[in-house]
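<context>
A single protein, sequence plus fold
<sample>
Here is the protein in question:
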Amino acid sequence: VDGLTLKERFRDLSKQGQVFSLDKSISILRDVLSGVSFAHDKKIIHRDLSPSNILLTSTGIPKISDFGIARVIESANTAEPTSAHGCTGNPHYMSPEQHRGEQADSLFDLFMIGIIGYLLLTSKHPFAHISGLFDIIELITDENYVPETPKPPSSLGTSQQRLFREYAAVIMRLLNRERAGRFISARTAIEALEAV
């Protein structure tokens, strides 16, 4: 793919004191969910989604890469064994159950997409504590820690702030600690975005 990774694009924008626009953020999020939905329909779970594994074409279209630790499963919502300790992929993007070594399923991927969506809206990792006194992994695995719901920038107009809050609610559902609290599939998350 001729372009940068999403991580590189985040870094470039950050150096310039900029962020993705709301429309671009949601477009990227929707496209990533669509790609993951396609993989899930083929019974493949990625297990390592992060900004480093999302490539942006020269026209800004995201492409999911690095299926090196992906698993083929019986159905998109069927659990499969992970590694001996369940720890595969980038630990800063793993779901709490992935850190606990539980069985892999499609909801692992949805949690990771929630982190990416949060980054798209805020340019901040949802589990990076503002004080800097806590490690990201520590907060992902802390059952009592809940990331702050993103707040719309004051620079957005009233209607854009409303949209931001509704998109943030979708992202926070993707980030739910409990599998049962997340969307049941990438497709249902896309439908929630499109309903905004």
